[in-house]
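[Target chain]
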Amino acid sequence: MSSYKELLAQREQLDKQIKEAVQREKAEGITKAKIIIEQYDLTASDLFSRKSGVRSASGKVAPKYRNPSTGDTWTGRGKAPKWIEGRERSNYLI
């Protein structure tokens, strides 16, 4: 069985080998990426474009409920207004 000092020396040697392997493989990856970028004439926006979900321009939500007596509306989000609190909401659907 190996001693503590021998194991530490092995670990140090392995850490060095790991660091060298990472640097070598990273360089190879960069070289391959550069070849592909040049081959297909890619730009940064081609590689890193962000596509988000479709949003409405104003960010407003259409009302879902209407108070028939006052005409007030509520989207169904956030705290419920007093006129609908504790009542059956299906009666107020638009």
The beta strands are 65-66, 73-74. Residues 4-46 form one domain.
